[in-house]
Amino acid sequence: MTILMITRGFPSEKYPLNGIFEWDQAKALHGLGHKVIYLALDMRSFRRKRKFGMRMFQEQGIDVYDCNFPLGAVGHGLLNFVSWRMFCRVYGKIVKAHGKPDIRHAHFARATGYAAYRAHEKYGLKYIVTEHDSKINGDAVSASERKLLKRVYRAAACRIAVSENFKARLESLYGEKFEYVPNIVDLSAMNCVNKVPHKGFTFVSVGALSEWKGMDKTIEGFAVLHSRYPETRLVIIGDGEDRESLLRLVENLKLQECVTLTGRLERIKIKEYFDRSDCFVLMSKSETFGVVYIEAMAAGLPVIATRCGGPESFVGDANGILVDVDDVGQLVRAMEEMRSRRYDAQVLRQFCLDRFSPEVVAGKITELIEENAIKDGKTATI
After folding, report:
1. pTM of the entire structure?
2. Whole-angstrom distance, CA of residue 82 vs CA of residue 192
3. Does residue 377 sit within a domain?
């Protein structure tokens, strides 16, 4: 089967997380024997430095069409118009080189859905859409955007949400049926459980140092715990606009000796910190899924997560504790409880492999594509 993936970007050395969910899925589908063509419509601001224009190359056996047109924070009408023109420019080249895809798979409807929708309306080209966008989960879209999203979802042959709670939210907001298929989690860096002996009890957190990840609440909760249990430690991995304010918070709470902010690290270095830690904690305000929780469990760590839209689909008593968003009191109690709980690290890892491995998730995507990859409507060439 030939699958054209329409995405918001392609991972690079400078921006390794750009389009990472889509790229992981593309690799997994390719691994199952599908022909995957990866079309990136990257319209981030020119501040994200990269080569503008279109590049065509092959990466790990997948043909990539990487289209970069810097727009940034402009109105969604202009973004949609440019994405459609970019799609039109490239789609003919793709058909000429590879033949007509069996299905088009758009990810992040606000970024790519309009192009897929217009191609369907104008040329009868079928598409499916996977929604990951946490801003939709947080209801932070304008009335005009929501109206367009309703059309995008309604016209899709199949709609996918990456968590069960997000699925219910989307169905409530847009009145269309969604399927639940989780994101693929690349567990190659978390390839084993390797507990390293260490003193005390260490909590570890990974995420952007921004308001949405709740690192300030994590530090505040840890301060209360540390006053009761001085042997506890906290490691925060990541970078962002709140770094300086978080460092000031650590200093004001006199936690310099027990709280470490490492900055951004590669996955292999993150794994080393996971191996020397006892529990993962992240106080996110909103998640449509929550890949980093899965990565932590795959390394053998139980997790403390928030009821924020994504983690509820996979965090329970067997692998962690859920707390309410911004509730420092609940966080302190959960941290305290984690000190006495015992988990089997290998069981935690197997839980992840059984549900989120590339083979498992790609198999579910394949089933949905096969159900919906019937003949396109009108026959036409863009």
Report:
1. 0.81
2. 44
3. no
